[in-house]
Amino acid sequence: VSQQLKEEIRRGFAGLEDPLAGLLDMLESSSDWKGKGHSLGYYISTELQLWIKEHPAVQQSGIKLKKLQARVLQILAQCPANLLDPLISIYQLHTADRNYLLEHVSHLYHEGHYKEAAMLSIKLKLQPDQDVEKMCTPLLLQDKTNLVEDYVGEYPELQSKLLQILDAWCEPGFNISNITRRYQGLSRYKPDKFNRKMLNKLVFRLLDRFNVDPALCPNVINQRHLRTLNYLFYKRFVEKTMTQENWTDHVQSTVGENRWLQGHLIQLLISYCDLNTAARWAQRYNLPKEMLPYGVAEELQKLQIQERVEEAAKADSYEESKKKDYYQLPIPRANIHFLQTWEETLWCWEKVLQPGQVVGIDMEWKPSFGMVGKPRVSLLQIALKDEVFLLDLPRLLEQAEAEGEKEKLPRFIQMLYSDAAITKLGYGMSGDLNSLAATWSALKDTDKQARGVVDLLKVDKQVDVLSPEQSYEDRGFRQPEKGLSLLVQRVLGKPLDKTEQLSNWEKRPLREEQILYAASDAYCLLEIYEKLCKDPASFGLSSDLTESLVGKPSIKPSAKKQLNKQEVPSPSGQQCQGSDKESPRPPAPISPKEFSVVCDNMLQGLGRYLRCLGVDVRMLENEDDHRKAAEIARQEGRVILTSGLPYQTLQSQVAEGRCFSVNCSEKAREQALQVLKHFNVRVSLADIFSRCQ
């Protein structure tokens, strides 16, 4: 509004004997303010609201104010939302007689002005004295759910009442037309929007927004659980993508002690399975015979232990066949560590938070099946080359809260994700980080601070395999692989066994199958990454794979200057050489006596061979950690000889050119020739056996 207009409005107020009555005269004689947007009436009203604060003497009271309030209430029934606050303030409607205001709102309601009645009630805070069902029902029929939410927004008691009403309408057998019949002829009525589906969605939205106990809405919750049951039967018996144990876990968790759901479960078992299976579940829940359909009660008496033995035998043969068909974890079971205390995690962080480390990260949470709220992470998996750590987050969080040190674990997780010197491998990492933020508010900005991360989901979109090693038809009828499982199949030859994916990850203790599944999910990322970096071209990827994956933050500035697109470090080799690149000038020749190396523990054969030729060799023992090689190299000025993933860890801990990756598949003689040629070591007859063997 221009300054000139403001000054003109204020001169007008000053010239009136009673500006409050003057504003009403103007609004009553004009209709420009009834439309949407900012009208002249709106500007004059808001300016008067400010002017009164500067000239409190113009305020009215007593009979005179009551008369003005009666007039303004007539205007409020027609005015747009933006005029409500200024007029309520100017005419002090909060001080008006409450019964008088309630009568006025009731009159609006009976005239069919439901929206206006609700908005005025919210502004004047009249809701505690009104009938929530009566006020909200017509609004729901007009699809004004946002207004309904605002109406109960500040009153927990009304929120509970409204939810109980909505839940009662969702009771099986309730006829919704009983409600709609009362409001026939309602303006802007949207019957197609008023149905059980809409009511269900609204109930869950309100439960989530107002943090109300879901037990208040048994009908809606039961219906949601019944849909979950149907979905579980589809996954187990139609798609065949869930194991018996996993499916059983979820069915028990969904049905609980609810007799109504138990009855539906028995009906579903009869449809999808047989009377015998239905009888087993009836026995498990100790259902009374009068609840059981015909045939199940009789079958209940025939159950024999022999059937359970047969079932166990089938399960064993299934496990054996699975090993042939699916990716298998290449490390011993003893190297998978389930961590539940802070002391145990310290051991994990010492190993993980090392410069040059490459780690596979995955997370698991209990599937929500459409229930309220974001999932909370139940398990965090961190895989290194030789071992996998499974962190029991609910237990660790509980321990941290009991000790008053809630931020301790999140701090380590942030250190891991923000350290550009540690390569973090994931699959769909943004989704994992969102779930982590929902579990711990302290981790909400982890995705923004993340450095040195490689999301293999992005690579998956680029991977091109013309002839997969084995199609899913060859393994009998089963769903085609997708997601990470498909990438594992394309790169490593066999898919992941995803039957534990929809497990109840909150239940403790975890089953052995869950532990192996969780470890495989994280560890396979290391193997995929290594294979893609070794031979990107055969997967349709460019040779600058590492740079495009890890991104700029994870490449050290000093290294970046020395690399171009044809010369990028791979996790297990020195460089991915481009064909156009001229070979670098070899170093000056040296004798074996001048050449000192430390051999990693997978290259002991090479170490012995080099020692025969007179080279100064130190070797790691089998039980030594790979990082010991870097310590020895720095202290004694030795070159590190290693292979595979440890190269990625070790090469960043020593000077450039002081770490060399050897091809592990070759024999010691060929490996030795490769090393001598690379470092230009010239061996004479006098050097052979010159050192103690």
TrEMBL record:
| Any matching Pfam family | Mut7-C
Q: Name the source organism.
A: Phaetusa simplex
**Feature: compositional bias, Polar residues:** 565-578
Q: Does the keyword Nuclease apply?
A: yes
The protein in question is named MUT7 Exonuclease
Positions of the UniProt region annotated as Disordered: 558-591
Q: Which InterPro entries did the record assign? A: 3'-5'_exonuclease_dom, Exonuclease_MUT-7-like, Mut-7_DEDDy_dom, Mut7-C_RNAse_dom, RNaseH-like_sf, RNaseH_sf
Looking up PANTHER family in the UniProt record yields: 3'-5' EXONUCLEASE DOMAIN-CONTAINING PROTEIN (PTHR47765), EXONUCLEASE MUT-7 HOMOLOG (PTHR47765:SF2)
Which gene is transcribed and translated to give this protein? Exd3
